[in-house]
Amino acid sequence: MQQVLFTTPALLVALAAAAPAIQERATNKKGLAYNNADQVAPLAGASSWGYDWSPSPKPIPHSQLELVPMCHAAGCSAVHSSSSSHVLMYNEPDETAANGGSNMSPAAAWAAWQRDAAPLRSARHQLVCPAVTSWDTPAGHTGGPAGFAWLAGFVGAAGGPAGLGCAAQALHWYGVAGQTGAAQGALFTAYVRAAHARVDALFGTADFPLWFTEISPLPVRDAQVMSDFLAVVVPFLDGLDYVARYSPFMAEYMVGNAAGATFAGKH
Predict the structure, then answer these.
(1) What is one GO biological process annotated to this record (predicted)?
(2) Helix (H) or strand (E) run with residue 154 in it
(3) What's the average model confidence in pLDDT over 217-232?
């Protein structure tokens, strides 16, 4: 799921004045999922990487973050980033376009992968397998498989993980409205453990690297709920060797509030 934010120059000035830049030594995992590079600059000091769902990610001012390009959908065989060797492939192919997904069946995604992956690999990029939702069902919002069911079909269409050549697997998770941030954090930690086992089984290896590129409790814009969620989630993810990277959804919602402070380790 990707939401586009609309801001005015006056609002950006007000946000910058209200939210001094956080100067916290970044871990090697925390990332910023963002649309407005200027607006999220106060969080750059607490992060080591970022992405904006684009094959040419916009630089965040006054930062040296690794900016990871994304091939959001099929037909993307070239990306532009001077700071990252990774490419995030296909955003939520198990979700509808209306919900921010790229809406491809496992077979269609594999057909596109064969066209798109070769030139990216020739350019020495490391590919992160398509980000799937947290479902595990043969009939999701697209009418086809979703979540791990979709991923199993994709790996199967490729004849096994070797056919894909992925360096990591991207995953998305959203919480349950009406529960506290801490309770949703507990649900997420359980999901991470289950995802670890499921992905390892699909890829036939131990501790296959996981990137959690969209994670959020519900509602997504509630700063206190996000803060309470992150207080559980950040130390948990930082302590797991098989979790390579993670980024809350989304960075704009954490600027100048309790969620941003917790993200930076200042709660």
Answers:
(1) fungal-type cell wall polysaccharide metabolic process
(2) helix 148-157
(3) 97
Enter the DSSP assignment of 254: G
Beta pairing class for 136-137 and 146-147: antiparallel
The number of beta carbons lying within 10 Å of the beta carbon of residue 63 is: 20
In three-state secondary structure terms, 167 is coil
Going by C-alpha positions, the residue among 245, 252, 201 that lies closest to residue 86 is 245
pLDDT in tens, 195-216: 999 999 999 999 999 999 999 9
User: In angstroms, rounded to a whole number, what is the distance separating the alpha carbons of residues 226 and 181?
Assistant: 6
Q: What domains can be seen in the chain, in order of their start residue?
A: 24-254 (3.20.20)
What tokens does 135 get? 């479902």
- Interhelix angle 148-157/106-122, rounded to 10 degrees, is 60
Look up tokens 């453990």; give the residue.
193
Q: How many residues does the chain have?
A: 267
